[in-house]
Amino acid sequence: MPFTLATWNINSVRLREGLVSRLLAEETPDILCLQECKAPVDKMPLSVFAAAGYRWCVARGQKGYNGVAILSKLPIEDAGDRDFATLGHARHVAARLENGVTVHNFYVPAGGDIPDRQQNLKFGQKLDFLTDMTHWFAADRPHKAILVGDLNIAPREDDVWSHKQLLKIVSHTPVEVDHLGKVMESGRWVDITRQDIPSGLLYSWWSYRAADWDAADKGRRLDHVWATPDIAGAAHGSRILRAARGWDQPSDHAPVFATFDL
Question: Smaller CB count within 10 Å for the chain: N or C?
């Protein structure tokens, strides 16, 4: 069963309901994973998406912050969630497809501006979140699983516009990259985007602060699609819809796509 999956930090699903509807209509992914929904589940416009053909949904919400949702044209069942680092945040939800594939949707904490856990509580929370992910996947190694989301780390040198200039900037510091690497290793995750696009600069996020984000092109690849080794070979067609960053009142993230033939 082939299916196409997309992941997108929407930065408020109510504010950008129209953009989600546009993506569903124009790109027609079978599954769309959203992060930073910024709403309780009962306030998310899920009925609008259901009317567009995305009848199945699992979600976890939170007023004004965080929030993750998995919209699907294919039947899915709720596969639970986990409160990583015991933050009490809605940052993870999982869904299981009829073919047995489990999709994990993550929104890893951004980590604030100072890359020092002694000076910045949020940075420590980010590292603790990643450590908890590592321990979980090591204790219960996933199989037939896909992990997507805004992981808020650009791990490779060609995942950022300037490796040298961003080494001390949160999202590309060596300590964060090391923590993310341990998460990957613990679950034997395969970076599907880079499996399909093995080299070259690649971004999924551009700051709102740039007067002209497109011309400046100072991006980072913060949004990821991973899979376990038993299904990684079935993945292909990875792409980032850069154009969505230029839509009216956009998220600062662009959707990331991959197709799986399973």
Answer: N
pTM of the model: 0.98
Q: How many domains does the chain have?
A: 1
Enumerate residues 6+ apart whose C-beta is below 8 A from 86.
none
What DSSP assignment string belongs to 148-186? EEE-----SGGGBS-HHHHTTSTTS-HHHHHHHHHHHHH
221/180 Cα distance (integer angstroms): 13
- CB contact at 8 A, 256 and 7: yes
Domain that holds residue 206: 2-261
Q: Can you give the CATH number for the domain in which 116 is found?
A: 3.60.10.10
**pLDDT single digits (tens) 133-186:** 999 999 999 999 999 999 999 999 999 999 999 999 999 999 999 999 999 999
